[in-house]
Amino acid sequence: MTGGAQQPTRLHRAYLGLGSNLGDRAANLRAAVQLLEERGVRVVEASSVWETHPVPADQPPYLNAVVAIESSLEPLALLAALKGIEHDLGRRPTRRWGPRIIDLDILFYDGLSVDTPELVIPHPEASDRRFVLVPLSEICPGPLPVLGRTAAELLVTATPLEMHRTEFRLRP
Ligand code: A4P
Ligand code: MG
To answer: 153 CA distance to ligand 1 centroid (A)?
Structure first.
């Protein structure tokens, strides 16, 4: 093997879903964005912040948003980084779909399909959730990776959910 120039780092593009329904929800979302940037994950686009009715309903309302990122992290390394940020922001394991300080989900990653016990991409609920599809439609108007349909098309049949846009911003 010859020495020489290093391979350029390959950047991947992914979409992340952000949610919070405990504590200072807007501050939690902003802190997550800041920690992503500090850990080398570049946030290239950010949706509005939406207040959304919780699913299931026996918990406080959520703030939800979606960001597009660029990162050299492979999918499992990105998942580990997200879990680390959730932990650092104070999230501790609770029941599935229970209230949380912060939830960071990988919705799409390049054009990749993954189906393993630790990681499923596209996120299995992405195509039916208004709290994902509405913010996603703001920053990704074209066909979604793997699914091949736009968020607006999927919204036609998505389960109804009360939600409204807020004045909060993910970044200053
Ligand atoms: N995991 C598998 N695939 C992924 C992926 N693509 N991204 C695994 C992130 N994680 C993924 O997740 C449990 C495990 O899923 C992880 O350890 C990872 O290995 P979790 O975040 O610890 O638990 P969870 O969030 O309770 O489970 P899940 O199934 O991810 O729930 P969701 O789908 O995130 O739903 N209502 C409103 N209005 N807004 C919300 O944001 N969120 C939820 C949580 C419920 N209701 C909501 C909202
Ligand atoms: Mg989750």
So the answer is: 23
